[in-house]
Amino acid sequence: MTMKIRKAVFPAAGMGTRFLPATKATPKEMLCLVDKPLIQYGVEEAVAAGCTEIIIITGRGKTTMEDHFDKSSELEASLAAKNKTALLEIARSVSKLAKITYTRQPEALGLGHAVLMAKELVGNEPFCVLLPDDIVDAKTPCMKQMVEAFNEVQSSILGSEVVEGAAISAYGCLDCTPLASNPRLLEVRDMVEKPKPEEAPSQNAIIGRYILTPRIFEMIEGIKPGAGGELQLTDAIKALLHYEKVYGYSYEGKRHDAGDKLGFLKATVEFGLKHPQLGAGFHEWLKSFPL
Ligand code: UTP
What we know:
Blueprint: E1 7-11, E2 32-33, E3 36-37, H1 38-48, E4 53-58, H2 63-69, H3 73-81, H4 85-95, E5 99-104, H5 111-116, H6 119-122, E6 127-130, E7 134-137, H7 142-153, E8 156-162, E9 172-178, E10 185-193, E11 204-212, H8 215-222, H9 233-240, E12 246-250, E13 254-257, H10 261-274, H11 279-288
Helix pairs in contact: 3-4, 8-9, 10-11
Bound molecules: uridine 5'-triphosphate.
Uridine 5'-triphosphate (UTP) is lined by residues 11-19, 28-29, 57, 105, 108-111, 113-114, 131-133, 259.
């Protein structure tokens, strides 16, 4: 029987320390890229990939995410009374994106632990995981590309991109071979977390997009805390490799690390320039800017 992807998990309980002080009282996932919070880009990508159920892993101080995706009756009534129909449509569409469920991670004990919090809500079916601070700009949304690849191989798939030189040391790295039938699919033999450049088995880095089979929960429960006492998702995927095939997927598009200050600034400029209403004016202003 072929398995379908219906559910998307968004780990959003981390502390966002790289973005302090902005993230002291504001969730990193709610930082605004042009005119939408980061997490909305991810939720829209999951919906475009066919997901109908969104599971957000939250923690202390993260309730603005729930308010953002909830219906805002006062705002809608006020916009309707003033006949601001375009703005009303924007406000309404956010709360109608998908069925969203929230569950809490009591302590930020790592990405693997955050994903484990979704075990009951996901149940016994494959699901996707999107890290909301990885923003992928792509003609076909990144997760949609990956779901199409999943429909082909029916196995776990890790979003991957080639990074230059020593930059690989900041990522999980794949020891892998592209499939002859589809070179974007990389058959994974092994994975190394943050390798020294000279020890990296390839330049194929893992990014914040995953499709995982439900056995991953058993694997997370079986691993020991790794670096910083955290349960690492990569350790659990390594364990999964003993039971099932795992693939990398070399997606088409451009990723921005919006959880990092410089990455966020770059994403702001690129998304600002592409914005249907703001792009032209922003472009003009940038041209006149003395660099
Ligand atoms: P990051 O490592 O980028 O997020 O994890 P962080 O820990 O919040 O950020 P820094 O490094 O301190 O700046 C990627 C995603 O996983 C979530 C984060 O919220 C982020 O969206 N995460 C991470 C959890 O939900 N729980 C955790 O224990 C760790």
